[in-house]
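Batch job 17 of 40 flagged for manual review because the log was empty.
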Amino acid sequence: MMYGAEWLRKRRVKIVHVAQMLRKRELGVNPPGTNFLRGAYEFYQCIHPGKALHGIDRKGFVLKRFSPCGRYLICFTSTYHSVSVRNYTTFTHAHNNVNAFEDVFPERFTVNVVSGAEEGSVLMRDCLFITPDSRHIIVALESLVSETAATLLDVYRNNESLDGSICDRYQMNVDRVWVAHGVHLVGRLFAVLSLQHQTIHFLHIDERTGRFIILNRVGRHLYDDDDLVSMGLHDDDQVTFTGLKQRLLTALYRRCVRAGCVDQFLHMFGQLRSLRMWQMQIIDSDVVLIRFVQEDAFTSGTSISMAPAVFVFYNWRTAQIVNVFERNSQQFGMIVERCLEELKHPEMLDNRFPCTAQYCQQGALLYERIKFFLVHITGESGSETHRRLVSQLPFSTTLAPTNSPYLDPSMFSYDDRLLATIERMRLPDKEVVKFHSRVTGLPLFQMSVSRGRYVQLLFHPSEPFAISADRSHPNTRATFHVPPLIPQT
């Protein structure tokens, strides 16, 4: 029989056709409030960068990232002395392999950020921040000065993307800064953690001039006028804690008083007084998350990431400790699990399609699958799963944004490790990335990335265009990934 049980069991595959989508959008049959999703976002199912144009000469530039608006591509020169901002015209100009890079990305301006007095300085490869309005760029310079001083000089510069002028600089002498976990930008609030001086510098980037406005320096003092008080109370016979550590010890002591375990605080006081700031990230405009570890962890042979840690939520405007958690705290693990999007992507102020387990169903299923594997296969407990999640905090700065529609797990399915490899900019050599549609469940397209040891894959924020290149060798050729309708001559 033609219409039997097998016919009823057969799943109907939804047809994804651009003509039908255009017809529904023009007739206005989509439900109210779904115009962005049904009238624009769903078209990415039909147009995708499935064709690879290999052998693109990138003129020796180190490709870094697209601006949030998608109108600019930020590059470093091969000497790491200059920043080049290039306009993005459109991927339709990529049909000529000879001058494809110049046609798609004509030069807007190039700024030399290494002056004659800073000879020997180079741009830090992993430090590049762009304000949400795409008007200002923050980069860093590092240089080894005289051997007698034995210092590392980090210079933070700011150049405006409109005319290519250097607006301001913020210099930190005789210092050590970990860019991945110690420099953060959310909106126009910029924070830098000094490991050498145990101080967090809070700066505001002026919207009009692009200059750095010093808001506060938290470490030795909590307010600007604290130095006036401490100068008159100095005693060589007493050990003075920094202002932030004093607040931390006070918060822990009061907690022990409420719990009736002051003896435990006194027993652990020697370890608590040796805590030092190691990592930091901005949570919102007022609160930062700081990870403290013991001073011995910096010199021990074991990995410092496995050392006991104390996580502190600190309000730097009111100089108050919001809360303190230890690494094995189950309550803290549940908080991180429920607020993963705010902790992992605080810089994405307008993220309509988050991909973390907090809001995305596919992300939640992936997280539950990983947790099931850890609990039932490896024999670990639920608290051990939370400890693994907490050990990643504070989350590192994302150098390669993953806010492309093609990386939205609710629309496309791909390898579970793809997002992590894109963020680390280390795709395997000769990698073929396959994408399947979440709507139909059928394969849509695949991307053959460039060859190399450290291959990066940069997606355009809104258009069906991507670039793959080996970031370790600027002279190697790149690959443009465009829709199949673009002819190749």
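Reviewer: the log was empty due to a logging misconfiguration, but the result itself is present. The radius of gyration is 26 Å. Unflagging and moving on to job 18.
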